[in-house]
Design a protein that fits this description.
single chain; 291 residues; mainly alpha; two-stranded parallel sheet; 14 helices; 2 strands; globular; transmembrane helix; Aur1/Ipt1; membrane; PAP2/HPO
Length: 291
């Protein structure tokens, strides 16, 4: 099985999750959102979507050349992480069962892609673009900080650092998955865990905007917890990476929240378009006067 077949398999699985998510979380009434409202939301978030695409492209470039740069200017912190937490990941794997391995392998790949992409589509259908705007800004911060950390910090995951104790459970049960994961990451980019930071970011924003989709918070929260545990259970990340990922998620949501204005008289929150859109200079002067 090649890369395209694996990608198609993941895409098909995520598509099924989307169908279930729209039925359970969004509902038929929201799915009938007028096209004008969707286009308006897209126009509002277009500037930050552009920034996100640039950051993702930069991540792709750094993934190709960043390893050499890391070895020139980076700090190898793998030994320090191991000294702090010892063999915790090995202990976690000692509790493994075939059922747990299948579950955590599923959420690490399929659940992660779903939890990242589904809220983008769901929030796009809401009449207030603030939830979508904050989600995209939070993604930018996650990937941006992660990019810097992956250059500054060299860290091998437990499966690479102590292979005699920690098994690559994902690859032993589904070897083809390695074709996909090697396309988006390298084995020295584990601190912090972006799987954790991005999924926890989604869960925090799901709680923050729980009135938009009340059912999304418990679902995203369960997925975020499962994905975070899966990164350790499968031997990919240390607990330290997960803790750092949670901290990055909190930082990302805080920055995203700052980029929205105080509520208007109508009770709705609107993006600070002067940060990423038209009227930037006037917006900065307005911001300075308000402070």
């Amino acid at each position: 099985m090649g890369l395209l077949e694996v990608a198609a398999q993941v895409g098909g699985g995520v598509l099924v999750l989307f169908v279930v998510g729209f039925a359970v979380v969004v509902g038929p009434s929201r799915m009938r959102t007028p096209a004008d409202a969707v286009r308006s939301n897209l126009r509002t978030v277009a500037p930050v979507l552009g920034v996100l695409l640039v950051v993702l492209a930069a991540n792709g470039v750094v993934r190709d050349v960043g390893l050499e740069l890391s070895w020139l200017i980076g700090i190898n912190i793998t030994g320090y992480i191991h000294a702090v937490e010892g063999e915790f990941v090995a202990f976690l794997q000692s509790l493994s069962t075939p059922a747990l391995t299948a579950y955590f392998g599923f959420v690490y790949v399929f659940g992660y892609v779903f939890v990242l992409t589904f809220p983008l589509a769901a929030y796009l259908l809401h009449d207030d673009p603030s939830s979508l705007y904050e989600l995209v800004v939070a993604y930018i911060v996650n990937y941006g900080v992660g990019l810097v950390c992956y250059v500054v910090f060299i860290a091998y995951g437990p499966r690479n650092f102590m292979p005699e104790l920690v098994e690559s459970l994902l690859y032993t049960t589904w070897p083809e998955a390695q074709l996909l994961t090697t396309e988006v990451n390298t084995n020295t980019n584990v601190f912090p865990s972006l799987h954790t930071s991005l999924s926890v970011t989604v869960a925090i924003l799901a709680y923050r905007f729980r009135r938009v989709y009340p059912r999304w918070f418990p679902i995203s929260g369960a997925l975020a917890l499962s994905i975070s545990v899966s990164t350790m259970y499968l031997g990919i990340h240390w607990a330290t990476d997960v803790v750092a990922g949670v901290g990055l998620a909190v930082l990302s949501v805080s920055v995203a929240r700052w980029t929205t204005e105080a509520p208007n008289p109508d009770g709705r929150r609107h993006p600070r378009t002067y940060l990423f859109g038209d009227g930037w200079a006037d917006g900065v002067r307005r911001w300075w006067r308000e402070r």
